Amino acid sequence: MSKIILISGSPKPDGNTAQLMGECAKVIQEQGVEAEVISFAGMSIGSCTACGKCSETGECDIHDDLSGIIEIIRTAQGLIVGSPVYFGTARGDVMSALQRIGYVSMHSNKFLAGMVGGPVAVARRGGQTLTLQEMLMFFLINDMIVPGSTYWNMVFGRLPGDVWKDQEGIDTIRHFAGNVAKLVKKLNPPASEAS
User: Fold this and answer.
1) Separation between Cα atoms, residue 15 and residue 161, nearest integer Å
2) In sequence order, which residues have a C-beta less than 8 Å from that of residue 98 and are 6 or more positions away?
3) How far apart are the C-alpha atoms of 177 and 148, rounded to whole Å?
4) CATH of 3-187, one of 3.40.50.2300, 3.40.1380.20, 3.40.50.360, 3.40.50.720
5) 34 bridge partner residues
6) Which of 112, 131, 149, 179 is most enclosed, with most CB atoms within 10 A?
7) Helices in the chain by DSSP H: which ranges?
8) pTM score, whole prediction
9) Does 192 score more than 70 pLDDT?
């Protein structure tokens, strides 16, 4: 069965970003695709040092909480990354993770190429579009496929649970998650259908 990984880049295990990733997972599972949410809450994620060792070993030389996540992503067909907006941009840990994941993929077996997914941004008031653009660069340079939705993948909310007041944002995210699942299924049909 195809699998989509959803990363909640928030330090809050039950914050708005985590709640949105859970909702995306629900939509994906309703489409008959496996979904796994990984939360960065409580994790330690260092920044890429451009040491180049991943080109020799196929693995990141920084041994922290991201190491196991990279191995999980290798087995997936889809990747959705959600980030809260901090000072108008994506949270630092999220970008550190994306840079390392991308670097390992580029310098090993390009496991991200052809994977379906995209970014989701959550903010109290502003900065979502810049955050989406910042994260989108990761998807595009890694030869990934990013489906659209009915609007940009952004939701408004400050306190945990506030995102549910933004119905247009929730509908947009649900539609996006559904599109990711549909495309993953089309690109990765079961063996019985592929012949």
Assistant:
1) 7
2) 81, 135, 138
3) 10
4) 3.40.50.360
5) 3
6) 131
7) 16-30, 54-57, 66-74, 92-106, 128-141, 167-187, 191-194
8) 0.96
9) no
